[in-house]
Structures are given as structure tokens and as C-alpha cells.
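Sat 14:20. Reprocessing the chain from the morning session after the first attempt stalled halfway. Input below, unchanged.
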Amino acid sequence: MDVRVFDDMPGLVAGLMSLASQPLSVGDAVLVQEWIEFSCELRLFFVEPQIQSMDGKLQHVDASQILYTTFEQVDSESRLRSFRRHARHEVLAAEFEGDQQALYAAEQQATVLANKLLVWLRTESAEPPTVLRFDFMVRRSGPGTADVWTGEITETGACFLGWKDGPDRVWNAVLRSCLAHN
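Finished this time. C-alpha cells:
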């Protein structure tokens, strides 16, 4: 799987043909999204998210980890390339003009959206996935404010994107999930 950028019908056709003919592809659907002008992506990892408390009420779940990334260019095949990971302070300075409130607003909005998606996913599956990564495209929209769009949702096989403790936390959670059913 991959992402293709297009701005006209021939570009869309070429992108869809490229995605549909990838070696070993078994996907029966392709997601087409409007291009969003964004400055960076927030990648929210949820490891063993518990969205329901003991009394049956929904509860807010914070991300286990938030990572920040950007794409620097689109190559000749319309693929996003030059993927870069950033520390939070780098994104704050470079993409949010030092506006701490705006970055915090983006993180909060992304977390609220992720919680809604966690609830929706729970309605689709009797057992929630052990690990999920929600990707959000974000940009500073003004002093103290940010725009946030849902990008991608990935399950256990998501790239850790340089999260140092990610492999241990994720694979230990997967092991606990497997052993809980025996």
C-alpha cells in the first residue's frame, strides 16, 4: 500500500491503477481522499485501549504515544517521499510558529477524534484491536487554534516510526492478548 497524490482525472486513474496492481496486493478497496493542506501529521498510538469502565460507561483514553512527522516532497510517481520524524519541540517551532496553545489544540482534537473512532471500532468488532495507530493531518489555523483531519487508521502491524519503546510495548500487549484467550 502507498499514497498517491493527484490533481486531475488522468492522475487519479494512474494512481488507482498503480495501487491496484501492486505485487501481492489483496485489497479489494482503495480509499480516495481530498488533498488537505497540512503542515504535519500526528501519529497517535493506542496500546490495549480500554474505552469502557467497570460500570459500563465510556471513558476518555489518552494515547500511549504521540509522534510527529512531515513529508518533504512528492516524487515523479506522485508518491509522498522524504518522510521525516520530529520531536514535539521541533514541530512546535517549525510548523506551529511556537504557538503552544495551537499545538495542544491539535493534540486534543486528535485525541477526541481517536476516542470516537475507538468507540466506532468497538461496534464493528467483538474484540477491540490490541494496538491501533491513528494518523491525523494537522495545521495551525490561527493563534491558539488548529485544524485536524483524520488520515489513516492502522492496526497492530503499523510502523513504529522510530518510537524507541514501541516494539516492546506493542508485542508484549499482543502476547498478553493471545494468552488471555487460552
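The CA atoms of residues 157 and 179 lie 19 Å apart.
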